[in-house]
Design brief:
mainly alpha; 20 helices
Protein backbone atom coordinates (compact mmCIF):
# COMPACT_ATOMS: atom_id res chain seq x y z
CA UNK A 1 0.00 0.00 0.00
CA UNK A 2 1.47 3.33 -1.12
CA UNK A 3 1.30 5.72 1.87
CA UNK A 4 2.69 8.76 0.06
CA UNK A 5 -0.61 9.93 -1.52
CA UNK A 6 -2.39 9.42 1.81
CA UNK A 7 0.14 11.54 3.68
CA UNK A 8 0.11 14.23 0.99
CA UNK A 9 -3.69 14.55 0.95
CA UNK A 10 -4.29 14.35 4.69
CA UNK A 11 -1.37 16.40 6.01
CA UNK A 12 0.86 18.08 3.43
CA UNK A 13 -1.88 19.57 1.20
CA UNK A 14 -3.78 21.37 4.02
CA UNK A 15 -0.49 22.67 5.43
CA UNK A 16 0.61 24.10 2.07
CA UNK A 17 -2.81 25.69 1.53
CA UNK A 18 -2.55 27.41 4.91
CA UNK A 19 0.98 28.65 4.16
CA UNK A 20 -0.09 30.00 0.76
CA UNK A 21 -3.04 31.85 2.27
CA UNK A 22 -0.74 33.47 4.84
CA UNK A 23 1.77 34.49 2.17
CA UNK A 24 -0.94 35.98 -0.06
CA UNK A 25 -2.36 38.16 2.72
CA UNK A 26 -2.38 41.80 1.66
CA UNK A 27 -2.79 44.99 3.66
CA UNK A 28 -6.51 45.31 2.88
CA UNK A 29 -7.04 41.66 3.83
CA UNK A 30 -5.21 42.23 7.10
CA UNK A 31 -7.38 45.28 7.87
CA UNK A 32 -10.48 43.28 7.05
CA UNK A 33 -9.44 40.42 9.33
CA UNK A 34 -8.53 42.87 12.12
CA UNK A 35 -11.96 44.49 11.91
CA UNK A 36 -13.66 41.10 11.81
CA UNK A 37 -11.56 39.87 14.75
CA UNK A 38 -12.50 42.94 16.78
CA UNK A 39 -16.17 42.34 16.13
CA UNK A 40 -15.93 38.65 17.06
CA UNK A 41 -13.98 39.49 20.22
CA UNK A 42 -16.66 41.98 21.25
CA UNK A 43 -19.41 39.42 20.72
CA UNK A 44 -17.56 36.78 22.73
CA UNK A 45 -16.86 39.21 25.56
CA UNK A 46 -20.53 40.27 25.68
CA UNK A 47 -21.55 36.60 25.75
CA UNK A 48 -19.13 35.88 28.59
CA UNK A 49 -20.41 38.87 30.60
CA UNK A 50 -24.01 37.78 30.06
CA UNK A 51 -23.47 34.22 31.26
CA UNK A 52 -21.30 35.38 34.16
CA UNK A 53 -24.20 37.54 35.33
CA UNK A 54 -26.67 34.71 34.77
CA UNK A 55 -24.63 32.23 36.81
CA UNK A 56 -24.31 34.79 39.61
CA UNK A 57 -28.10 35.01 39.73
CA UNK A 58 -28.34 31.22 39.87
CA UNK A 59 -25.79 31.13 42.70
CA UNK A 60 -27.96 33.41 44.85
CA UNK A 61 -30.95 31.10 44.52
CA UNK A 62 -31.08 27.94 46.69
CA UNK A 63 -30.73 24.81 44.54
CA UNK A 64 -30.44 27.05 41.45
CA UNK A 65 -27.55 25.20 39.82
CA UNK A 66 -28.93 21.76 40.68
CA UNK A 67 -32.29 22.57 39.11
CA UNK A 68 -31.04 24.28 35.98
CA UNK A 69 -27.54 23.06 35.11
CA UNK A 70 -28.32 19.46 33.99
CA UNK A 71 -31.05 20.71 31.68
CA UNK A 72 -28.88 23.57 30.44
CA UNK A 73 -26.09 21.15 29.48
CA UNK A 74 -28.57 18.92 27.68
CA UNK A 75 -30.16 21.76 25.73
CA UNK A 76 -26.74 23.17 24.82
CA UNK A 77 -25.62 19.78 23.53
CA UNK A 78 -28.82 19.30 21.53
CA UNK A 79 -28.54 22.74 19.93
CA UNK A 80 -24.86 22.12 19.20
CA UNK A 81 -25.59 18.79 17.52
CA UNK A 82 -28.58 20.10 15.54
CA UNK A 83 -26.78 23.18 14.27
CA UNK A 84 -23.70 21.19 13.31
CA UNK A 85 -25.72 18.55 11.49
CA UNK A 86 -27.66 21.11 9.46
CA UNK A 87 -24.68 23.36 8.77
CA UNK A 88 -22.61 20.34 7.73
CA UNK A 89 -25.22 19.42 5.12
CA UNK A 90 -24.80 22.80 3.44
CA UNK A 91 -21.01 22.85 3.79
CA UNK A 92 -20.64 19.27 2.54
CA UNK A 93 -22.47 20.15 -0.68
CA UNK A 94 -19.64 22.58 -1.44
CA UNK A 95 -16.71 20.65 -0.01
CA UNK A 96 -17.64 17.23 -1.40
CA UNK A 97 -19.15 18.19 -4.75
CA UNK A 98 -18.25 21.77 -5.76
CA UNK A 99 -14.69 22.27 -4.54
CA UNK A 100 -12.13 23.34 -7.14
CA UNK A 101 -9.44 20.87 -6.11
CA UNK A 102 -11.77 17.87 -5.93
CA UNK A 103 -11.10 16.84 -9.55
CA UNK A 104 -7.37 16.60 -8.83
CA UNK A 105 -7.96 14.62 -5.64
CA UNK A 106 -10.17 12.10 -7.44
CA UNK A 107 -7.54 11.71 -10.17
CA UNK A 108 -4.76 11.17 -7.61
CA UNK A 109 -3.50 7.63 -6.84
CA UNK A 110 -5.06 7.62 -3.37
CA UNK A 111 -7.79 5.40 -1.91
CA UNK A 112 -11.29 6.84 -1.78
CA UNK A 113 -11.45 6.83 2.00
CA UNK A 114 -8.50 9.25 2.09
CA UNK A 115 -10.36 11.78 -0.07
CA UNK A 116 -13.53 11.36 1.98
CA UNK A 117 -11.64 11.79 5.24
CA UNK A 118 -9.83 14.92 4.02
CA UNK A 119 -13.16 16.45 2.95
CA UNK A 120 -14.64 15.44 6.31
CA UNK A 121 -11.91 17.34 8.16
CA UNK A 122 -12.56 20.35 5.94
CA UNK A 123 -16.29 20.32 6.78
CA UNK A 124 -15.58 19.76 10.48
CA UNK A 125 -13.21 22.71 10.68
CA UNK A 126 -15.46 25.09 8.76
CA UNK A 127 -18.59 24.25 10.77
CA UNK A 128 -17.13 23.37 14.17
CA UNK A 129 -14.88 26.39 14.71
CA UNK A 130 -17.83 28.78 15.05
CA UNK A 131 -19.67 26.49 17.45
CA UNK A 132 -16.61 26.06 19.63
CA UNK A 133 -16.19 29.83 19.76
CA UNK A 134 -19.82 30.37 20.76
CA UNK A 135 -19.79 27.64 23.42
CA UNK A 136 -16.50 28.57 25.07
CA UNK A 137 -17.65 31.81 26.82
CA UNK A 138 -20.52 30.24 28.82
CA UNK A 139 -18.38 27.23 29.77
CA UNK A 140 -15.52 29.49 30.87
CA UNK A 141 -17.97 31.67 32.82
CA UNK A 142 -19.32 28.60 34.62
CA UNK A 143 -15.82 27.35 35.40
CA UNK A 144 -14.79 30.73 36.81
CA UNK A 145 -17.97 30.99 38.87
CA UNK A 146 -17.63 27.52 40.44
CA UNK A 147 -13.81 27.53 40.60
CA UNK A 148 -13.55 24.28 38.63
CA UNK A 149 -10.26 22.56 37.84
CA UNK A 150 -8.44 21.86 34.61
CA UNK A 151 -10.26 18.54 34.15
CA UNK A 152 -13.52 20.39 33.58
CA UNK A 153 -12.14 22.30 30.59
CA UNK A 154 -10.50 19.18 29.19
CA UNK A 155 -13.75 17.24 29.49
CA UNK A 156 -15.60 20.04 27.70
CA UNK A 157 -13.12 20.08 24.82
CA UNK A 158 -13.22 16.29 24.42
CA UNK A 159 -17.00 15.92 24.70
CA UNK A 160 -17.64 18.90 22.42
CA UNK A 161 -15.19 17.48 19.87
CA UNK A 162 -16.98 14.12 20.04
CA UNK A 163 -20.37 15.78 19.58
CA UNK A 164 -18.95 17.81 16.69
CA UNK A 165 -17.68 14.64 15.00
CA UNK A 166 -21.09 12.98 15.34
CA UNK A 167 -22.95 16.05 14.02
CA UNK A 168 -20.59 16.52 11.08
CA UNK A 169 -20.85 12.83 10.16
CA UNK A 170 -24.65 13.01 10.24
CA UNK A 171 -24.61 16.08 8.00
CA UNK A 172 -22.15 14.54 5.54
CA UNK A 173 -24.22 11.34 5.23
CA UNK A 174 -27.40 13.37 4.72
CA UNK A 175 -25.70 15.47 2.04
CA UNK A 176 -24.51 12.39 0.16
CA UNK A 177 -27.96 10.81 0.36
CA UNK A 178 -29.65 13.95 -0.98
CA UNK A 179 -27.17 14.29 -3.84
CA UNK A 180 -27.78 10.66 -4.80
CA UNK A 181 -31.59 10.95 -4.74
CA UNK A 182 -32.73 14.52 -5.40
CA UNK A 183 -31.82 16.87 -8.25
CA UNK A 184 -28.57 18.72 -7.67
CA UNK A 185 -29.71 22.05 -9.11
CA UNK A 186 -30.56 24.76 -6.60
CA UNK A 187 -30.19 22.34 -3.69
CA UNK A 188 -27.63 24.56 -1.96
CA UNK A 189 -29.77 27.71 -2.26
CA UNK A 190 -32.91 25.94 -1.08
CA UNK A 191 -31.21 24.60 2.04
CA UNK A 192 -29.71 28.00 2.79
CA UNK A 193 -33.10 29.72 2.62
CA UNK A 194 -34.71 26.98 4.71
CA UNK A 195 -32.01 27.18 7.36
CA UNK A 196 -32.26 30.96 7.63
CA UNK A 197 -36.04 30.76 8.00
CA UNK A 198 -35.62 28.15 10.75
CA UNK A 199 -33.08 30.37 12.52
CA UNK A 200 -35.38 33.38 12.34
CA UNK A 201 -38.29 31.31 13.66
CA UNK A 202 -36.13 30.01 16.52
CA UNK A 203 -34.96 33.52 17.42
CA UNK A 204 -38.55 34.80 17.31
CA UNK A 205 -39.71 31.92 19.51
CA UNK A 206 -36.94 32.55 22.03
CA UNK A 207 -37.89 36.22 22.01
CA UNK A 208 -41.37 35.34 23.25
CA UNK A 209 -39.82 33.62 26.30
CA UNK A 210 -38.86 37.05 27.72
CA UNK A 211 -35.14 36.37 27.83
CA UNK A 212 -34.51 39.90 29.10
CA UNK A 213 -35.69 38.72 32.54
CA UNK A 214 -32.47 36.69 32.83
CA UNK A 215 -30.72 39.95 33.72
CA UNK A 216 -33.04 40.73 36.65
CA UNK A 217 -33.00 39.39 40.17
CA UNK A 218 -36.09 37.24 39.51
CA UNK A 219 -34.36 35.32 36.71
CA UNK A 220 -35.80 31.99 37.85
CA UNK A 221 -39.30 33.31 37.09
CA UNK A 222 -38.49 33.11 33.40
CA UNK A 223 -40.86 30.68 31.57
CA UNK A 224 -37.96 28.70 30.14
CA UNK A 225 -36.30 28.21 33.52
CA UNK A 226 -39.64 27.40 35.16
CA UNK A 227 -40.09 24.62 32.63
CA UNK A 228 -36.61 23.29 33.37
CA UNK A 229 -37.18 23.39 37.12
CA UNK A 230 -40.31 21.28 36.75
CA UNK A 231 -38.33 18.48 35.04
CA UNK A 232 -35.31 17.62 37.20
CA UNK A 233 -34.80 14.36 35.32
CA UNK A 234 -36.18 15.54 32.00
CA UNK A 235 -32.76 16.20 30.53
CA UNK A 236 -32.51 12.48 29.70
CA UNK A 237 -35.03 12.86 26.86
CA UNK A 238 -33.26 15.59 24.91
CA UNK A 239 -31.55 13.22 22.51
CA UNK A 240 -27.90 14.02 21.68
CA UNK A 241 -27.71 16.54 24.50
CA UNK A 242 -28.08 13.82 27.12
CA UNK A 243 -24.64 12.41 26.20
CA UNK A 244 -23.05 15.84 26.52
CA UNK A 245 -24.77 16.36 29.88
CA UNK A 246 -23.60 12.95 31.15
CA UNK A 247 -20.04 13.79 30.14
CA UNK A 248 -20.00 17.21 31.86
CA UNK A 249 -21.96 16.68 35.08
CA UNK A 250 -19.30 14.59 36.91
CA UNK A 251 -16.72 17.37 36.47
CA UNK A 252 -19.14 20.01 37.79
CA UNK A 253 -19.91 17.94 40.89
CA UNK A 254 -23.52 16.91 40.27
CA UNK A 255 -22.90 13.24 39.49
CA UNK A 256 -20.54 10.49 40.56
CA UNK A 257 -20.85 8.43 37.35
CA UNK A 258 -17.76 8.64 35.15
CA UNK A 259 -17.30 7.46 31.61
CA UNK A 260 -19.42 9.99 29.74
CA UNK A 261 -16.45 11.34 27.79
CA UNK A 262 -15.33 7.83 26.83
CA UNK A 263 -18.82 6.96 25.59
CA UNK A 264 -18.92 10.18 23.57
CA UNK A 265 -15.56 9.33 22.01
CA UNK A 266 -16.83 5.87 21.01
CA UNK A 267 -19.94 7.40 19.46
CA UNK A 268 -17.78 9.88 17.53
CA UNK A 269 -15.51 7.11 16.24
CA UNK A 270 -18.42 4.97 15.07
CA UNK A 271 -20.11 7.96 13.41
CA UNK A 272 -16.96 8.88 11.46
CA UNK A 273 -16.48 5.26 10.38
CA UNK A 274 -20.13 5.10 9.31
CA UNK A 275 -19.70 8.29 7.27
CA UNK A 276 -16.65 6.85 5.49
CA UNK A 277 -18.36 3.51 4.78
CA UNK A 278 -21.51 5.26 3.53
CA UNK A 279 -19.38 7.55 1.37
CA UNK A 280 -17.78 4.61 -0.40
CA UNK A 281 -21.26 3.70 -1.66
CA UNK A 282 -22.91 7.10 -2.21
CA UNK A 283 -20.13 9.58 -2.92
CA UNK A 284 -19.22 8.68 -6.51
CA UNK A 285 -22.88 8.34 -7.45
CA UNK A 286 -23.58 11.87 -6.24
CA UNK A 287 -20.33 13.13 -7.77
CA UNK A 288 -21.19 11.97 -11.29
CA UNK A 289 -24.70 13.27 -10.88
CA UNK A 290 -23.36 16.69 -9.88
CA UNK A 291 -21.17 16.80 -13.02
CA UNK A 292 -24.06 16.18 -15.37
CA UNK A 293 -25.46 19.18 -17.20
CA UNK A 294 -29.04 19.47 -18.35
CA UNK A 295 -29.64 19.24 -22.09
CA UNK A 296 -30.38 22.63 -23.66
CA UNK A 297 -34.04 23.13 -24.47
CA UNK A 298 -35.77 25.74 -26.57
CA UNK A 299 -38.79 27.22 -24.84
CA UNK A 300 -41.39 29.71 -25.89
CA UNK A 301 -40.39 32.05 -23.06
CA UNK A 302 -36.81 32.12 -24.34
CA UNK A 303 -37.97 33.08 -27.84
CA UNK A 304 -40.13 35.87 -26.43
CA UNK A 305 -37.17 37.11 -24.36
CA UNK A 306 -35.01 37.15 -27.50
CA UNK A 307 -37.62 39.22 -29.36
CA UNK A 308 -37.90 41.59 -26.42
CA UNK A 309 -34.11 41.94 -26.34
CA UNK A 310 -34.04 42.83 -30.03
CA UNK A 311 -36.74 45.46 -29.64
CA UNK A 312 -34.95 47.02 -26.68
CA UNK A 313 -31.68 47.08 -28.61
CA UNK A 314 -33.28 49.02 -31.45
CA UNK A 315 -34.79 51.53 -29.00
CA UNK A 316 -31.48 52.44 -27.38
CA UNK A 317 -28.45 50.93 -25.63
CA UNK A 318 -29.66 52.02 -22.16
CA UNK A 319 -32.91 50.07 -22.43
CA UNK A 320 -31.00 47.10 -23.87
CA UNK A 321 -28.68 47.05 -20.86
CA UNK A 322 -31.69 47.19 -18.53
CA UNK A 323 -33.26 44.22 -20.32
CA UNK A 324 -29.94 42.34 -20.14
CA UNK A 325 -29.75 42.80 -16.36
CA UNK A 326 -33.36 41.66 -16.07
CA UNK A 327 -32.58 38.48 -17.97
CA UNK A 328 -29.50 37.80 -15.84
CA UNK A 329 -31.49 38.30 -12.67
CA UNK A 330 -34.17 35.87 -13.82
CA UNK A 331 -31.85 33.19 -15.23
CA UNK A 332 -29.16 33.07 -12.55
CA UNK A 333 -30.54 31.32 -9.44
CA UNK A 334 -27.45 32.29 -7.41
CA UNK A 335 -28.72 35.90 -7.56
CA UNK A 336 -32.48 35.84 -7.19
CA UNK A 337 -32.68 32.97 -4.68
CA UNK A 338 -30.63 34.99 -2.21
CA UNK A 339 -33.18 37.79 -2.39
CA UNK A 340 -35.56 35.56 -0.44
CA UNK A 341 -33.01 35.43 2.37
CA UNK A 342 -33.63 39.14 2.99
CA UNK A 343 -37.30 38.57 3.80
CA UNK A 344 -36.65 36.73 7.11
CA UNK A 345 -34.11 39.40 8.08
CA UNK A 346 -36.68 42.14 7.56
CA UNK A 347 -39.29 40.15 9.48
CA UNK A 348 -36.85 39.49 12.34
CA UNK A 349 -36.06 43.21 12.62
CA UNK A 350 -39.71 44.25 12.71
CA UNK A 351 -40.68 41.50 15.17
CA UNK A 352 -37.91 42.39 17.60
CA UNK A 353 -38.74 46.08 17.21
CA UNK A 354 -42.24 45.40 18.50
CA UNK A 355 -40.84 44.28 21.87
CA UNK A 356 -39.07 47.56 22.64
CA UNK A 357 -40.84 49.50 25.44
CA UNK A 358 -40.66 52.90 23.70
CA UNK A 359 -44.25 53.42 22.62
CA UNK A 360 -45.66 56.82 23.58
CA UNK A 361 -42.62 57.58 25.74
CA UNK A 362 -39.82 60.11 25.84
CA UNK A 363 -37.56 57.66 23.99
CA UNK A 364 -39.80 57.55 20.91
CA UNK A 365 -37.99 60.42 19.06
CA UNK A 366 -34.58 58.87 19.73
CA UNK A 367 -35.85 55.48 18.60
CA UNK A 368 -37.29 57.05 15.44
CA UNK A 369 -33.86 58.45 14.51
CA UNK A 370 -32.11 55.20 15.42
CA UNK A 371 -34.68 53.25 13.38
CA UNK A 372 -33.79 55.27 10.26
CA UNK A 373 -30.10 54.55 10.80
CA UNK A 374 -30.60 50.82 11.41
CA UNK A 375 -32.72 50.41 8.29
CA UNK A 376 -30.14 52.36 6.27
CA UNK A 377 -27.45 50.04 7.63
CA UNK A 378 -29.48 47.00 6.55
CA UNK A 379 -29.88 48.53 3.08
CA UNK A 380 -26.11 49.10 3.01
CA UNK A 381 -25.55 45.39 3.69
CA UNK A 382 -27.96 44.52 0.86
CA UNK A 383 -26.11 46.96 -1.38
CA UNK A 384 -22.77 45.32 -0.58
CA UNK A 385 -24.16 41.93 -1.63
CA UNK A 386 -26.20 42.87 -4.71
CA UNK A 387 -25.47 46.43 -5.91
CA UNK A 388 -21.71 46.71 -5.46
CA UNK A 389 -20.86 43.53 -7.49
CA UNK A 390 -23.17 44.53 -10.36
CA UNK A 391 -20.34 46.36 -12.14
CA UNK A 392 -18.24 43.17 -12.10
CA UNK A 393 -20.99 40.72 -13.00
CA UNK A 394 -19.75 40.20 -16.59
CA UNK A 395 -16.45 38.73 -15.40
CA UNK A 396 -13.86 38.13 -18.09
CA UNK A 397 -16.47 38.77 -20.77
CA UNK A 398 -16.60 42.46 -19.85
CA UNK A 399 -15.12 43.33 -23.24
CA UNK A 400 -18.50 42.53 -24.79
CA UNK A 401 -20.19 45.26 -22.77
CA UNK A 402 -17.20 47.58 -23.24
CA UNK A 403 -17.56 47.25 -27.02
CA UNK A 404 -21.29 48.08 -26.87
CA UNK A 405 -22.41 51.52 -28.14
CA UNK A 406 -23.00 52.84 -24.60
CA UNK A 407 -21.06 55.60 -22.89
CA UNK A 408 -19.57 55.04 -19.43
CA UNK A 409 -22.05 57.48 -17.90
CA UNK A 410 -24.93 55.58 -19.47
CA UNK A 411 -23.68 52.27 -18.10
CA UNK A 412 -23.33 53.70 -14.62
CA UNK A 413 -26.73 55.42 -14.65
CA UNK A 414 -28.32 52.22 -15.96
CA UNK A 415 -26.95 50.23 -13.02
CA UNK A 416 -28.27 52.83 -10.57
CA UNK A 417 -31.72 52.88 -12.17
CA UNK A 418 -31.84 49.09 -12.11
CA UNK A 419 -30.71 48.71 -8.48
CA UNK A 420 -32.17 51.73 -6.68
CA UNK A 421 -35.96 51.10 -7.02
CA UNK A 422 -36.01 47.64 -5.31
CA UNK A 423 -33.77 48.84 -2.47
CA UNK A 424 -35.85 51.99 -2.02
CA UNK A 425 -39.05 49.92 -2.00
CA UNK A 426 -37.67 47.64 0.75
CA UNK A 427 -36.51 50.63 2.80
CA UNK A 428 -39.84 52.47 2.48
CA UNK A 429 -41.80 49.34 3.46
CA UNK A 430 -39.59 48.79 6.51
CA UNK A 431 -39.78 52.46 7.50
CA UNK A 432 -43.56 52.56 7.25
CA UNK A 433 -43.97 49.27 9.14
CA UNK A 434 -41.58 50.34 11.90
CA UNK A 435 -43.33 53.69 12.28
CA UNK A 436 -46.63 51.88 12.77
CA UNK A 437 -45.05 49.54 15.32
CA UNK A 438 -43.52 52.45 17.27
CA UNK A 439 -46.78 54.46 17.09
CA UNK A 440 -45.00 57.60 15.88
CA UNK A 441 -46.82 60.83 15.23
CA UNK A 442 -47.58 61.83 11.59
CA UNK A 443 -44.78 64.42 11.69
CA UNK A 444 -42.20 61.89 12.83
CA UNK A 445 -43.51 59.31 10.35
CA UNK A 446 -43.19 61.75 7.46
CA UNK A 447 -39.67 62.71 8.55
CA UNK A 448 -38.64 59.06 8.90
CA UNK A 449 -39.91 58.24 5.41
CA UNK A 450 -38.19 61.25 3.84
CA UNK A 451 -34.88 60.95 5.71
CA UNK A 452 -34.78 57.16 5.32
CA UNK A 453 -35.51 57.34 1.60
CA UNK A 454 -32.86 60.01 1.07
CA UNK A 455 -30.08 58.21 2.93
CA UNK A 456 -31.09 54.92 1.26
CA UNK A 457 -30.63 56.48 -2.17
CA UNK A 458 -27.25 57.89 -1.15
CA UNK A 459 -26.09 54.50 0.14
CA UNK A 460 -27.23 52.71 -3.05
CA UNK A 461 -25.61 55.35 -5.27
CA UNK A 462 -22.38 54.99 -3.29
CA UNK A 463 -22.46 51.20 -3.71
CA UNK A 464 -23.01 51.42 -7.47
CA UNK A 465 -20.35 54.09 -8.07
CA UNK A 466 -17.68 52.45 -5.88
CA UNK A 467 -18.43 49.17 -7.66
CA UNK A 468 -17.23 50.82 -10.89
CA UNK A 469 -14.23 52.33 -9.07
CA UNK A 470 -13.06 48.91 -7.82
CA UNK A 471 -14.12 46.32 -10.41
CA UNK A 472 -13.05 42.69 -10.10
CA UNK A 473 -13.44 40.76 -13.33
CA UNK A 474 -11.05 37.89 -12.61
CA UNK A 475 -13.32 36.16 -10.10
CA UNK A 476 -14.57 32.59 -9.83
CA UNK A 477 -17.82 33.54 -8.10
CA UNK A 478 -19.59 36.85 -7.77
CA UNK A 479 -19.50 36.54 -3.99
CA UNK A 480 -15.74 37.17 -4.11
CA UNK A 481 -16.45 40.73 -5.28
CA UNK A 482 -18.44 41.39 -2.09
CA UNK A 483 -15.42 40.31 -0.02
CA UNK A 484 -12.76 42.39 -1.78
CA UNK A 485 -11.06 45.61 -0.75
CA UNK A 486 -13.54 47.74 -2.69
CA UNK A 487 -16.49 46.24 -0.82
CA UNK A 488 -14.65 46.72 2.49
CA UNK A 489 -14.07 50.40 1.62
CA UNK A 490 -17.72 50.78 0.64
CA UNK A 491 -18.98 49.31 3.93
CA UNK A 492 -16.60 51.53 5.90
CA UNK A 493 -17.82 54.59 4.00
CA UNK A 494 -21.48 53.59 4.41
CA UNK A 495 -21.06 53.03 8.15
CA UNK A 496 -19.31 56.40 8.45
CA UNK A 497 -22.07 58.16 6.53
CA UNK A 498 -24.89 56.54 8.50
CA UNK A 499 -23.06 56.97 11.82
CA UNK A 500 -22.52 60.67 11.17
CA UNK A 501 -26.16 61.09 10.24
CA UNK A 502 -27.23 59.46 13.50
CA UNK A 503 -24.78 61.55 15.51
CA UNK A 504 -26.00 64.91 14.19
CA UNK A 505 -29.68 63.89 14.18
CA UNK A 506 -29.61 62.57 17.76
CA UNK A 507 -27.84 65.70 19.00
CA UNK A 508 -30.56 67.83 17.41
CA UNK A 509 -33.30 65.66 18.97
CA UNK A 510 -31.73 65.93 22.44
CA UNK A 511 -31.80 69.72 22.15
CA UNK A 512 -35.25 69.86 20.51
CA UNK A 513 -37.11 66.70 21.65
CA UNK A 514 -40.51 67.75 20.30
CA UNK A 515 -39.51 68.59 16.72
CA UNK A 516 -38.20 66.29 13.99
CA UNK A 517 -34.84 67.44 12.57
CA UNK A 518 -36.43 68.61 9.33
CA UNK A 519 -34.04 71.47 8.60
CA UNK A 520 -31.19 70.76 11.00
CA UNK A 521 -28.14 72.55 9.52
CA UNK A 522 -25.68 69.90 10.70
CA UNK A 523 -27.72 67.02 9.22
CA UNK A 524 -28.20 68.80 5.90
CA UNK A 525 -24.52 69.75 5.71
CA UNK A 526 -23.50 66.15 6.42
CA UNK A 527 -25.80 64.78 3.68
CA UNK A 528 -24.61 67.41 1.18
CA UNK A 529 -20.98 66.51 1.96
CA UNK A 530 -21.61 62.85 1.26
CA UNK A 531 -23.56 63.71 -1.88
CA UNK A 532 -20.44 65.51 -3.12
CA UNK A 533 -18.23 62.55 -2.21
CA UNK A 534 -20.63 60.19 -4.02
CA UNK A 535 -20.48 62.39 -7.11
CA UNK A 536 -16.68 62.31 -6.94
CA UNK A 537 -16.83 58.50 -6.75
CA UNK A 538 -19.02 58.53 -9.87
CA UNK A 539 -16.47 60.65 -11.73
CA UNK A 540 -13.63 58.35 -10.70
CA UNK A 541 -15.70 55.34 -11.77
CA UNK A 542 -16.20 56.80 -15.23
CA UNK A 543 -12.47 57.43 -15.46
CA UNK A 544 -11.81 53.80 -14.54
CA UNK A 545 -14.22 52.58 -17.22
CA UNK A 546 -12.49 54.65 -19.89
CA UNK A 547 -9.05 53.26 -19.01
CA UNK A 548 -9.24 49.87 -20.69
CA UNK A 549 -5.96 48.46 -19.40
CA UNK A 550 -7.72 46.94 -16.35
CA UNK A 551 -10.04 44.91 -18.58
CA UNK A 552 -7.27 42.57 -19.76
Amino acid sequence: MNLKPIVLILFWLPLRQLVNRIRRTRVDDALKFIALGGFVSGVLWAEYAFFQRFFELLGRTPMGFILVLPNAFSIMGSILFGFLAYSSVITALTSYYQSDDLRFLIASPAPLWTILLSRWFDVAFRTGATLFGLCLPPMIALGVKLNLGVGYYGAFLLSAAALTAAGVSAGVVASMAMMSIFPARRLHQTLSILGLCIAVAAIGGMRFLHLETLWSEDALANPLLVFLRQQPEGWMKYGPGSLFSRAMLPYVGFSNQRGGVEIAALVAGFSVAAALLTGRVLFMRGWWKAQQQADPQTRRGALLSERFWGRCLHRGPGLALMARDGLLLRRDPSIWTQLFMMIPLVAMYLVNLSFLPVRQSDFAPLMAVANVGLIALLVAVIGARFVFPSASREGRAVWIVAAAPASPWLRMVQQVLFSAPPALLVAIAMLYGSCLILHLTPAWTLWSMAAGGLITLQVIFLAAFLGFCFPMYNHRHLLEVSLGKGAFLYMAAAVLEIGGFLWFAIRFVLNHPADPPVAAPSVLAWLVLWAALTAAAAGFGVKRIRSYEWIA
